[in-house]
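Data availability (excerpt). The following record was deposited with the supplementary files.
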Amino acid sequence: MAINRDSNVYTLSFAAIMVVLVGGLLAFVSLSLKPIQKANQTNEKMQNILQAIGIEETATVSRDEAGTIFNDYVKRRITIDYNGKILSDLAVNDPIKPQDKLDAFNIDIRKEYSKYIKPIMNANKGNDEKIKSELAGNENIHFPLFICENNGKKYMVTSCSGKGLWDDIWGYIGFESDGKTISGAIFDHKGETPGLGSVITEDWFEKQFRSKSIDENGYTAIQVLKPGKNLDNHQVDGISGATFTGVGVDEMMGRSMEVYYNFVKSNPEILN
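Predicted structure:
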């Protein structure tokens, strides 16, 4: 019996078969690439942490190199809560296990910001004390930090996440062994305006934070100011035409660095 290729049945059947075949092929390709994508994400995170230390040895480390040398510099992975309680403390010999949700390396700061921090901030705008109180009482909010060593000197790399003009922004901030002087900073974003907010990833912006201090007889937040102003030891130039992105960097650092500052003040031996 000859097949009528001009019939609607034939056309619909052929289309259905092609959809199934193409869908299956795409699913196979997606599953095949998933391990590679995960490895790239892991290496990129290691690269950011290493570059945030702010030392020459890791300043230009590539994503692929980062996975190889990460443990040469990162000696402890610590997770604390808002109040400074240590929830996890792993040494360099402890492998990073994806199923360990409290391992500092596995903390998803962007997810926690969107799911837990942002709703608290939106619900309590203008009431800083209420925001701090609710952040302190939320057990789902974590603060990862990484104790690094180079030539006998210790550094601490912290993290922060917030919102720019359009979407997520985040960063890794390194500190000297005093726990208050910034040694390096690495920022990234999801969708800031090219040539404006996206400039937070450029060297000239990130390098401004080096040697700035978050201590002036107590915690002092780093301010991102409009360009052209006289700056002190707690201020950096913002980006022309990207006011909201600068405000986002200012806010996320101010909120997160206070937690790390208080932790180091209460645990000075962590960097000795």
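Summary of structural features: Residues 204 and 237 are 10 Å apart (CA to CA).
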